[in-house]
Write a structure and sequence with these properties.
alpha/beta; D-Maltodextrin-Binding Protein, domain 2; five-stranded mixed sheet; 37% helix; 23% strand
């Protein structure tokens, strides 16, 4: 059960480049502002969470901590930017399930190896995903959504933060488990994917809860289910 939960839940990991190659004396760090790289677009769960961490970390370190969004190639652009940075501890990455564990198996010829080039220094957060649909979708339950998708194969499209992202993998797990056909529309982050779900450009999404909960409460999208083994306290009415 624990392994399945890990598949459908998303964990953010801060990764420090080349820690073993260039140890930084505590008295000398930080010698300048610290960059925190987010490999996804602004406004998503990863970005929002890291900005909260950046503010608190900057106060603790006594140096500015600057969040930079480096998007593209399913998060690979941001990771490569960190890997190529000086190994002095001043450039950190908000790694994700997609960028650190899935992409090395999904993309050929990557310029980095997470196991070789990055060192994890802490778990930032983990969250559930929420199955959301545009209000125009004639489905109030997961069963009704599955029936609708089976009646019109591939007509329904879902958005994701990009190929290989958690929002892509979890949606594919749902699609395969339900035995339905859905059209995948990848974006450069969860925020633009959520925007298009709200607009009805795509009909559904399995988004991370921190990213979409505001739109759910505003009734701009309808939540049908959350991943995990129990209801989430922030969405107690959603199975």
């Amino acid at each position: 059960m624990r392994k399945r939960k890990q598949v459908v839940r998303w964990a953010g990991i801060l990764a420090l480049v080349g820690l073993w190659a260039a140890p930084v004396a505590a008295a000398e760090f930080p010698a300048k502002p610290v960059s925190l790289i987010v490999p996804w677009a602004a406004g998503g769960s990863t970005d929002v969470t890291l900005r909260v961490l950046a503010e608190a970390t900057g106060k603790y370190l006594g140096q500015p901590v600057v969040v930079e969004n480096r998007t593209g190639a399913g998060g690979n652009v941001g990771v490569e930017n960190v890997v190529r940075s000086p190994a002095d501890g001043h450039t950190l990455l908000m790694g994700t399930m997609g960028t650190l564990t899935i992409n090395p198996h999904l993309y050929r010829g990557l310029a980095f190896d997470p196991a070789r080039d990055l060192v994890g220094i802490g778990m930032a957060f983990e969250t559930v995903h929420v199955l959301i649909v545009h209000p125009s979708v004639q489905a109030a339950t997961v069963a009704e959504l599955v029936a609708l998708a089976k009646a019109e194969p591939a007509r329904l499209a879902y958005g994701s933060a990009g190929s290989g992202s958690s929002t892509h993998m979890v949606a594919e797990l749902f699609r395969l488990t339900a035995g339905i056909e859905l059209t995948h529309v990848p974006y450069r982050g969860s925020a633009p994917a959520l925007n298009d779900t709200v607009a009805g450009t795509v009909q559904l999404m399995l988004d991370q809860l921190p990213s979409c909960i505001g739109q759910v409460h505003a009734k701009r999208v309808r939540a049908l289910a959350v991943t995990g083994t129990a209801r989430h306290p922030l969405l107690p009415e959603v199975p």
